[in-house]
Design brief:
This protein is α/β, with parallel strands linked by helices. Helices cover 36% and strands 24% of the residues. The chain folds into 2 domains: 116 residues, Ribulose 1,5 Bisphosphate Carboxylase/Oxygenase, CATH 3.30.190.20; 87 residues, Rossmann fold, CATH 3.40.50. The protein is built from 7 helices and 10 strands. Helix 2 crosses helix 6. The termini are close together.
Length: 220
């Protein structure tokens, strides 16, 4: 079921205006907080917690960083698709053997992709660093359309809810229009709705990095 994007856009515009009053040396992002009523959502139960990727309709800014594991044709296609770094099969064990290096790799990149023939090496040497962060790569054959894959990652956010009945997620940037950000917010709310828990939401707030939060109405 869709949400009233016009109403959401009004909240985004208000958040932008209030955030513009803050003196910053950087361009601000937009984030939302979705807060559930504590008595209605028991997050001690695993089924009420989630850690999932959600594809938004509009690309995020700055672009997310994608790293690829593989060689040959796969590596060439990955670079053409816009990944920031390609790690060859021979390099994977070297990174994996250095704790600092594998942690830095996991921290630097938002998403990872891998050639099918590199996955076993990734799991063996880098799984300890990537797995707990939910960043294990998806495997792709050489003929895969990696441009479409990377484009999708540029529109993907990870929604995590753990020990408290709330989650925060980035939904935009000041370079994006209010409508684009509103559409992204509506998609996040649609994800919550798909979980069957939208009626347990207490408040939804949108804010710029340094600005005050603004209430978002979740009208249909």
């Amino acid at each position: 079921m869709s949400f009233n994007v016009d109403v959401i856009e009004t909240a985004v515009a208000e958040a932008r205006a209030k955030g513009n009053g803050k003196s910053t040396k950087f361009e601000q992002s937009f984030d939302i907080a979705v807060n559930f009523r504590k008595k209605e959502l028991d997050v001690s139960k695993p089924e009420n917690r989630f850690n999932q990727e959600v594809v938004l309709p509009n690309r995020m800014y700055p672009p997310v960083k994608v790293c690829a594991f593989g060689d040959g044709e796969f590596a060439d296609k990955a670079l053409e698709a816009g990944v920031e770094r390609v790690v060859g099969r021979e390099e994977i064990p070297k990174i994996g053997e250095e704790k600092k290096e594998r942690k830095l790799l996991a921290k630097t990149f938002d998403f990872f992709i891998s050639a099918v023939d590199a996955m076993s090496l990734v799991g063996r040497y880098l799984g300890q660093a990537l797995g707990p962060r939910g960043k294990m790569p998806r495997p792709f054959p050489p003929q895969a359309d990696l441009s479409a894959v990377v484009d999708q990652y540029q529109r993907t956010v990870r929604i995590r809810m753990r020990n408290t009945p709330t989650f925060h997620v980035k939904v935009g940037h000041v370079r994006m229009s209010d409508r684009e950000i509103a559409d992204n917010i509506a998609t996040v709310l649609g994800f919550v709705d798909s979980k069957g828990i939208i009626d347990r939401v207490g408040r939804v707030l949108v804010k710029t990095t340094m600005g005050p939060p603004v209430d978002v109405s979740i009208e249909r």
